[in-house]
Amino acid sequence: MTTLFLILIAVVILTCIWLNDISARIGVPTLLAFIVLGIIFGNVGAIPVYLDDHSFAKDLCTVALIFIMFYGGFGTRWEAVKPVVRESVLLASAGVIVTAGLTGLFCRFALQWGWAESFLLGAVVSSTDAASVFSILRSKRLGLRNNTAPMLEMESGSNDPCAYMLTAIMISVMNGTASGASLVWMVFAQLVFGAGLGFCIAKAASWALQRMKFSTEGFDTLFIFAVAIAAYALPDLLGGNGYLSAYIVGIMLGNEEFRGKKSMVGFFDGLTGLMQVLIFFVLGLLARPAELHRAILPALAISVFLLLVARPAAVMSILTPFRKYSFRQQELISFVGLRGAASIVFAIMAITGVDTLDTQLFNIVFCIVLISISLQGSLIPLAARKLDMLDAGADVMKTFSDYSENTEMQFSQISIVAGSAWEGKQVAGLGLPGNVLIALVIRGKERIVARGDTLLLSGDKVIVVTKTFEDKQTYLVEKTVKPGGKRAGHAIREFSHDGLVLLVKRGEREIIPSGDTVMEAGDVLYLIK
Question: Same domain for 108 and 204?
Answer without folding.
Answer: yes
